[in-house]
TrEMBL record:
Topology within the bilayer: Multi-pass membrane protein
Organism whose genome encodes this protein: Microbacterium pumilum
TM helices/strands, residue ranges: 22-44, 50-74, 95-116, 154-178, 190-208, 229-253, 273-306, 327-347, 353-375, 382-400
Pfam families: AA_permease_2 (PF13520)
Lineage of origin: Bacteria, Bacillati, Actinomycetota, Actinomycetes, Micrococcales
Identification of the protein by name: Amino acid permease
Length: 457
């Protein structure tokens, strides 16, 4: 006989095993971050950017582990917002949704500009054409999502695997150019620069929550998700760490000067095929990532509208298999707004990456607090959630300079709650007043009352 306190039996209705699950995790964490972050981190922290990578890997261990436990125990396609709603209520879940929809969305034009930079560099196109190339990269994913077309997950994984293969080749070619003198001085911008680099690298290591959305598709979530997470953590951490070491060692003070650091590394070992391969695959990966971004944002927007966290008009297409064109249009407006600000900044990507990553850290912080409340106390998963929650709070402190958009969205979520409660209170008062008015009106009574009065002596 099964104990009532025993954990639920593993779900076996899905078709994803350890190999496919690990591939999905790696594909979700590796991607466009490889194209730009090593250079940006080197620019703000110098050789100490290597410490930033190690710090974010350390943060990823309890974070990824907690998400693995949550996904294994609570299969729910709603992901982090569902856990937050379960543990912390509707307002906190609304904050999480807004951070995804309007904060994380700052990363969409960044991806387009990244792809455009690589295309321009490989094709020898003047950099003044990058904005037009970026818009060209945005159009196909929007068109595909408007017609309900989706790039298959295995195709996106293949593209990411190709990028990873190119990175391995590029690192191998550039490694002989590493000069130990490029690692000194180690802290040219102090520990403040390291903190900024850590905030930047959250972009690279975002994606561990993917298992919470696909957990129901695993054949054995309680076994496969933790194993797949562990393998992906080792692979992705090693890739980013080795790439950062080689970027700083080979390019030195020039590591953060160019918009295409991976191409600069490729050119150290090969002026021809290596650079072309990196550029082509970078553009294709940008298209694939954008397709996934837009599909997620559109569905999220429709779901928020369904819960009345956005105007109900945007809820069309929220159902399974539906095409959320109205929410997709809203996503397009948000993306174009960020793109316009990016153009005004001279295509400076760092502020928008920080908005994206600070929103992700805020989401992760609430997700970890929810995990502390949901998971059984003093278990391994609970301790990982506690550690991850503390680390996420530390990350919020490091990202304090870029938290204004996230704070504004949190205020908006609270304002929606206040307005709803005020409306409910006003409605209750009106109903109560109407009942009092009915009782106090002498002309209002039941039909039986006059007859009863006339029969009395």
């Amino acid at each position: 006989m099964t104990s009532p306190d025993a954990p639920p039996a593993p779900a076996r209705h899905g078709g994803i095993g350890i190999v496919q699950g690990t591939a999905l995790y790696i594909a979700s964490v590796l991607g466009t971050g490889l194209l730009v972050l090593p250079g940006l981190a080197a620019a703000v922290a110098g050789p100490a950017s290597i410490v930033a990578v190690i710090a974010v890997i350390g943060l990823s261990v309890p974070l990824a582990g907690t998400f693995a436990v949550l996904a294994a125990r609570y299969p729910d396609p709603g992901g982090v917002a569902s856990y937050v709603r379960r543990a912390l209520g509707g307002t906190a879940a609304r904050m999480t949704g807004y951070w995804f929809m309007f904060g994380v969305c700052a990363g969409a034009p960044v991806v387009a500009v990244l792809g455009a930079n690589y295309v321009a560099a490989v094709a020898g196109i003047d950099r003044s054409m990058v904005p037009l190339l970026a818009l060209a990269i945005l159009v196909p994913p929007f068109a595909a999502n408007a017609f309900g077309v989706r790039v298959a997950g295995w195709v996106q994984f293949v593209l990411t695997a190709l990028l990873l293969g190119v990175v391995v080749v590029v690192v191998s070619l550039a490694a002989p150019a590493v000069d130990p003198q490029n690692y000194t001085p180690f802290l040219p911008h102090g520990w403040v620069g390291v903190g900024t680099a850590v905030s930047l690298f959250v972009w690279a290591f975002a994606g561990w929550e993917v298992g919470t959305h696909i957990s129901g598709e695993f054949r054995n979530p309680r076994r496969d998700i933790p194993v797949g997470t562990a393998i992906a953590l080792v692979v992705t951490g090693a890739c980013y760490l080795i790439l950062q070491i080689v970027t700083v060692g080979a390019l030195g003070g020039d590591a953060g000067d160019g918009a295409v650091p991976l191409l600069e590394l490729a050119r150290l070992g090969s002026q021809g095929l290596g650079a072309i391969a990196v550029g082509v695959i970078a553009a294709i990966v940008a298209l694939g990532v954008m397709n996934a971004y837009l599909a997620a944002f559109a569905k999220l927007g429709a779901s928020l509208a369904l819960n009345r966290d956005l105007p109900r008009w945007f809820s069309a297409g929220a159902e399974s298999g539906g095409i959320p064109r109205r929410a997709l249009a809203l996503t397009g407006v948000v993306v174009l707004a960020y793109f316009g600000l990016m153009l005004a900044s001279g295509l400076d990507l760092k502020p928008f990456i920080l908005v994206h990553t600070s929103s992700m850290v805020a989401i992760y912080a609430l997700g970890m607090v929810a995990a502390v409340r949901l998971l059984r106390r003093f278990t391994t998963g609970w301790w990982m959630a506690v550690i991850a929650a503390v680390l996420c709070v530390g990350m919020l402190v490091l990202a304090i300079g870029s938290l204004l958009p996230a704070a504004g969205l949190a205020v908006a979520a609270v304002a929606v709650t206040i307005v709803r409660r005020a409306r409910r209170t006003a409605g209750t008062v009106l109903v109560a007043q109407a009942m009092v008015d009915d009782r106090s009106d002498p002309g209002v009574g039941t039909p039986a009352e006059p007859a009863a009065r006339s029969s009395r002596p």
